[in-house]
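Working notes for the structural subgroup meeting. M.R. asked for a predicted model of this chain before we commit to crystallization trials. I am recording the input and output together here so anyone reviewing the notebook later can reproduce the run.

Input as submitted:
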Amino acid sequence: MLRLALLALLLAPLPALADDAPDLTGTWQGAYDCAQGRTGLVLTFAPDPRGGYVGTFAFHAVADNPGVAAGAFAVTALFDRAEGSFHVDPGLWLTRPPGFVTVPLVGEIAEDGQAFAGEVLTTGCGKFLVRRYIS
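Returned structure, recorded in token form:
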């Protein structure tokens, strides 16, 4: 009986991306607003075999705010079917400039699948908007 239960666990598929969930895979470029002002943003996502996505949140200066430091941290993202949105949670720093903190996001992908927009969930921050990067 125990062997059968273990075999069932081993053969059970890992959670997959929800069929009805929009695809977050790829590179997204745009900007977000926070205490330091408008900041360039590059999000990258790849499917996580355990479900959801893993990726990076990389930020940088933009023309109208050239003094912003560059940095990056790891992220994970999960689709919330009830809300119809993705929750992007920060992980470990990859490159941390002084005075910066990691930030979570919540947002939705546009119907055409080419834009991802929402809120930066940290005091002093506002909205983000990124577009799917096609090389």
